[in-house]
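Internal tracking record. Fields below are filled automatically when a chain is submitted to the structure queue. Please do not edit lines marked as system-generated. If the sequence contains nonstandard residues, flag them in the REMARKS field before resubmitting.
Queue: standard
Priority: normal
Entity type: single polypeptide chain
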Amino acid sequence: MKTITNSIYAAFGLFAFLCFIAPGTTQAVNPPPDGCYPNFTTAEGCDALNSLTTGAANTAVGWSSLKSVTTGGFNTGVGAGALLLNNGDNNTATGTAALVLNATGADNTANGTAALVHNSTGSANTAIGAFALNNNTADANTAVGHWAAISNTSGTANTVVGASALRDNMEGNENTALGLWAGLGIQGSRNTAVGTSTLRDTVQGNDNTAVGRWAGLALTGSNNICIGSGVFGVAGESNAIRIGDNLTGGYCIIGNIWNVGPGVPNTPVLVSDTGRLGVNTSSRRFKHDIKPMDKASEAILSLKPVAFHYNDDTKNIPCFGLIAEEVAVVDPTLVIRDEKGAPFTVRYDQVNAMLLNEFLKEHKKVEALQATVARQQNAMETLTAQLKEQAAQIQKVSAKIEISRPAPQVAARRK
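SYSTEM-GENERATED OUTPUT FOLLOWS
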């Protein structure tokens, strides 16, 4: 501040040297122009600059404008009562009662009737518009528009553009509101409202962002993001992101998602029936009522896979799958319905799990059958071996019998 002030004094000193001291450059005017006073001071109006002592480069135009300033410098007050109580530096007030109660605040700019009217010690504020920052006493606020941030008292670093924007904020800090009635009810901090009536009823919520006409209108919680005209949000919710959640019948295109390989195993992104994005969880800690699927998967045996083409597919690519209406007849739990209750799509991930269960059941049957066949094979091999052994024994017995049998005798003929 001191460096800036010294620079301004140096500039005025140079100007004075060139215009009034350098011989032959000017000619003294006697009497001086109306309202012309020493130290680059100009005053016009009843009691304007009435108390000035050593202050320099002040300009006061209007009834009691800059009436109380004594040592303050580089102030400009234009309008009845503008900067009436001021004794600070570098303030500019244009409009009746603008910065009227400012005492020691510095570097403020008020343009409009009753703009920054209650500011006394606050500095670095800018108010443009009737009653803008009317009740402000803090620092570093910017308000442009009729009644913009009119209720702000101790809130700092707020930026407001639009009639009645951030109108009810009193102590909240670092809020940004751009648009008619933007952030009208905000009393929290670090909220960003862009668009007509955005975040209008947020009140005590913090760190909310709303972009679009009426966006975030219903929000009362914190850390929410609402983007899109009419994306109201839900009262009481926090940490929610809503982007065009009121749109139907169109489509959504987001860059840098399709055909991007992150170099790690991919996890499909899913959308819940309430429009929430997420991934499917498989950990036991997310589940309850866990039990074997058993016969519940047998419903898929009645499903009828089909080949088809999508109506809006310009390339007419052949597709394979199921018809949601047909699946709903077999097992309604495998179908996701739209907002009107009509079948919309099939829970293919659940079908896959059911297929796995049926496969495992059939696999167990095959294993059991294979075990039975193996046992039968072993039995047959044992029986064959036994039969072979019996045949060998029979052959041995037959051979012994043949050997022990007496040779046949022939009777001699009598002569």
